[in-house]
Design brief:
The two termini are about 15 Å apart. This protein has no helices and nine strands. The protein is elongated and about 50 Å long. It is mainly beta. It has a single domain, classed as ApaG domain (Immunoglobulin-like, Sandwich), CATH 2.60.40.
Length: about 150
């Protein structure tokens, strides 16, 4: 018998999202500090974030690639590029929404992220959908997520 520990993911529903709309693609992001994976004594701070991508255009689109710019409190910048998100390259029909949750480790208790998705429309034309800048922060003003055993 294995005893596996699974931390509870945060409830983002009460947070106001950061929002950006580009060519009918609305991207909303919410983030929270995530104590179950963090080790503050080792300067390791985990943040989870929820992204919702709304296709408000009149055409089918596909998310092909992502490009994140991550900046910590010391001004160190890391760029992350890759195909799709969470192992998927979702296709969104008009009025469809794609939601995913991911995480970002930082060596400082604060930082920020932004970037863009490379999308393609039905004609195969690629365009950039902006990901809004949002803050990552550990502090008394942020609601902490409790772990479930």
């Amino acid at each position: 018998m294995t005893n596996s520990f699974r931390p509870k993911l945060p409830d983002f529903s009460q947070q106001k999202p950061a929002v950006e709309t580009t060519q009918g693609i609305r991207v909303e992001v919410r983030s929270q500090y995530f104590p179950p994976e963090s080790k503050p004594e080792s300067n390791l701070f985990y943040f989870v974030y929820e992204v919702q991508i709304f296709n408000e255009s009149e055409t089918v689109v596909q998310l092909l690639r992502r490009h994140w710019v991550i900046r910590d409190a010391l001004g160190q910048v890391e760029e992350v590029k890759g195909d799709g998100v969470v192992g998927q390259q979702p296709v969104l029909a008009p009025d469809q929404v794609f939601r995913y949750v991911s995480a970002c480790p930082l060596w400082t208790p604060r930082g920020e992220m932004h970037g863009h998705y490379v999308m393609a429309n039905e004609a195969g034309e690629e365009f950039l959908a902006k990901i809004p800048k949002f803050r990552l922060g550990k502090g008394s003003h942020l609601r902490l997520v409790k772990a479930e055993a």
